[in-house]
Design goal:
Helix content is about 50%, strand content about 20%. With about 375 residues, the chain is α+β, with helices and mostly antiparallel strands.
């Protein structure tokens, strides 16, 4: 038995083969169909579409053969891939290269072989298309040989298509990840900008109006001005100050870095329930501690979004549970009858929530609990809270 020599470009050939990531992949209909076609055009009972690795010949598609691979050292295809043409061996028993090959003398008892190399777009022989018979064949026509070459060409095109599809998928993933990072950055900057605006409103507007109020209080003591007018003006300005403070809370729940966000979140949720006639229950573990400012604000926005989504979907009862163990968990439950996942995926506020969860590097689970209520469970690393 003669062993096939290694191609001069073996190292580059292997790199080219591995770039397709085809080895040890599941069966695919396109490849199987080509193997079936090879059987039909050749009149042989066996066909293989194989790729030659460093020490083995691996079968991507096969017809009437159970093995998944064979050793490269005994492979007929190792010889066939050395030539850029069809290799035909009419009778293995009469060929000095193969007469004592275990594939000839063993149970498979191969007597006829015809194989053609699969040439990649880069020009490397990465595998073969071959047909096998247990009976010697004295005639294997030019038309049959040409048909094998066409099949090998189609296999090469399938490889290139796989590679291009992989590149498209990889680029798409990069673009999606970039979009996510951009959305997270946009929301983070948006919250910072709102925090700055809130501080400006709180400090500048409120202080200015408070000064005006104080001035009017002094002026009220003057007998030259109408006490009734001054009292009404003072009342309007007091109301204006309150409205400015309410406005700042719509922009950011607190302008103080050391405020306790768990209390702020609870106050917001309870007030929302009162304003919208929804029963909202809020629970958190004892000795919870506090959030850092960024985490607290992000959790605040997530819960704010979710109770608005629940209101939009017709919920009447909402439960919010925040728990800190080895991780920080937030579980939001509501009784809206709308399908939870289908409805929320179409809601821009829910997409906003997903982006904010990404900022916290958290995980999201959506479903229904044992009582049939919709739930959203958020788990984030404990480092996000303090």
């Amino acid at each position: 038995m003669q062993f096939a020599i290694l191609p001069d470009n073996e190292e580059q050939r292997l790199k080219n083969l591995l770039s397709y990531e085809i080895l040890d992949t599941p069966e695919e209909k396109d490849f199987n169909d080509l193997a079936t076609l090879a059987v039909h055009i050749s009149g042989c009972p066996f066909a293989l579409i194989s790729f030659t690795d460093k020490d083995r010949q691996w079968f991507k598609a096969k017809k009437n053969i159970t093995e998944k691979e064979s050793g490269r050292n005994i492979s007929f295809c190792s010889h066939a891939m050395l030539k850029n043409e069809v290799m035909v061996v009419n009778d293995m028993h009469k060929d000095e290269r193969f007469f004592d090959n275990p594939l000839v003398t063993g149970d498979l008892a191969v007597s006829f072989y015809a194989g053609v190399p699969i040439i990649s777009e880069a020009g490397f022989a990465v595998g073969t298309v071959c047909v096998i018979d247990t009976k010697a064949k004295h005639i294997f026509s030019v038309q049959q040989q040409h048909a094998l070459e066409i099949i090998a060409g189609q296999v090469s095109k399938l490889l290139e298509l796989r590679l291009k599809n992989k590149l498209i998928i990889d680029r798409s993933k990069l673009l999606i990840e970039a979009e996510k990072q951009f959305a997270q950055l946009t929301l983070t900057n948006y919250d910072k900008e709102k925090s700055h605006i809130a501080n400006e409103l709180q400090e500048n507007f409120a202080q200015t109006l408070a000064a005006i109020k104080l001035y009017i209080e002094f002026a009220e003591e003057s007998k030259e001005m109408s006490g009734h007018f001054l009292k009404k003006s003072k009342g309007h300005i007091t109301e204006l100050i309150r409205e400015v403070r309410d406005l700042t809370k719509t922009l950011v729940p607190t302008t103080m870095d050391n405020d306790n966000y768990i209390d702020i979140i609870q106050d917001m949720a309870i007030q929302f329930g009162k304003d919208n006639n929804i029963n909202i229950q809020f629970f958190y573990t004892k000795n919870f501690g506090s959030f850092d400012t960024n985490t607290g604000l992000t959790i605040f926005r997530i819960i704010e979004n979710q109770i608005q989504i629940a209101l939009n979907s017709g919920a009447k009862n909402i439960t919010i549970k925040i728990k800190k163990t080895k991780t920080l968990s937030v579980v939001f439950t509501d009784d809206c009858v709308t399908d939870s996942l289908e409805f929320r995926e179409k809601d821009i506020l829910f997409n906003n929530t997903i982006t904010r969860i990404g900022i916290l590097k958290g995980k999201l689970q959506i479903g229904k609990d044992t009582a049939g209520k919709n739930f959203i469970a958020l788990t984030i690393p404990i480092s996000a809270g303090k």
